[in-house]
Amino acid sequence: MFFASCDPDRENLSLYSNADGSWVVSLPAEEVPPELPEPALGINFARDGMKRGDWLALVAVHSDAWLMAVAFYYSAKFTADQRKKLFDLINTLPTTYEVLSGKGGKKMKVATAANNNKRPAAAMVRFEFALISARKTSRALVSL
Amino acid sequence: MFFASCDPDRENLSLYSNADGSWVVSLPAEEVPPELPEPALGINFARDGMKRGDWLALVAVHSDAWLMAVAFYYSAKFTADQRKKLFDLINTLPTTYEVLSGKGGKKMKVATAANNNKRPAAAMVRFEFALISARKTSRALVSL
Asked: How far is Cα of residue A80 from the mean position of the Cα atoms in its chain?
């Protein structure tokens, strides 16, 4: 699902997290400057030029960075103490990259170039699982 | 200088910090996905539709968010403890927005719509001063 939606033949796409915790691959905001920091643009163009695991890692790391940007954009008026509390909350959760690489607990089994054809669907389900950690991060913001 | 370089008649521009601590208004990276998280695009388009102080605050907040994204993009392989150390280092410095708004110590006197014509150059010098705090944030990364 995620892999297929990142078709390199489409325009430059980004992976967005919605406020309800769902994720969607979409075109960038039409209006610039955008209302919020934007996630990495053109993840679909990188899809077929890398090993699938490396590409997923790239998207995960960009997603983690973007979530931090959004978190601290929203908290621009926080004091240093409030920022510290927010960060500590976020930091209790593994990053998307950690879940993907298995360093944050349960390891994802990502379909590599060698087994792409065998189980792409399973790999996508697992990538969506990885994004749950980022989703929780988003929720931490709302509860603060 | 900064104000003039954000001409709304130019293409969509972003405010970048270089590795040496200098700042530059520039076009976005040509290659997508970009090597690093990108700062807010099209800051120049917002320049003349807002009060100057509000526009500077918008750019400052986007710059702070972007610096966090870059910091945590670089530290994708850090453990939670290392991320915490990095954040605590960053958080000892005021944000660009705090310096701009005077909440981080020395208050910047930003030229508002009312006194734009009197001292735009002074306002720009002060905005550059605000960015020094962000620059220090970048340096904290390198020293970690």
From this structure: 26
Q: Is A105 helix (H, G, I), strand (E, B) or coil?
A: coil
**CB-based contact A66 B37, cutoff 8 Å:** yes
Q: Tally C-beta pairs within 8 A across A and B.
A: 104
CB contact at 8 A, B105 and B120: no
CB atoms within 10 A of CB A48: 11
- A-chain residues near B68 (CB < 8 A): 68-69, 71-72
HEC string for chain B: CHHHHCCCCCCCCEEEECCCCCEEEECCCCCCCCCCCCCCCCHHHHHHHCCHHHHHHHHHHHHHHHHHHHHHHHCCCCCHHHHHHHHHHHHCCCCHHHHHHCCCCCCCCCCCHHHCCCCHHHHHHHHHHHHHHHHHHHHHHHHC
Indicate the residue of B43, B79, B97 with minimum beta-carbon distance to A76.
Answer: B97
Q: Which residues pair with A15 in a beta bridge?
A: A25
- Judge whether B110 and B100 are in contact, CB under 8 Å: yes
- The model's pTM is 0.80
Residue B24 β-bridge partners: B16
* Nearest Cα to Cα of residue A94 among A136, A58, A59, A53: A136
Contact B33 A70 (CB under 8 A): no
| ipTM of predicted assembly, 2 dp | 0.80
Burial annotation A16-38 (CB, 10 A radius, 16+ → b, else e):
bbeeeeebebeebeeebbeebbb
pLDDT per residue, tens digit, chain B (144 aa), is 899 999 999 999 999 988 887 889 999 999 999 999 999 999 999 999 999 999 999 999 999 999 999 999 999 999 999 999 999 999 999 999 998 898 865 555 544 333 333 333 444 444 454 455 554 655 555 455
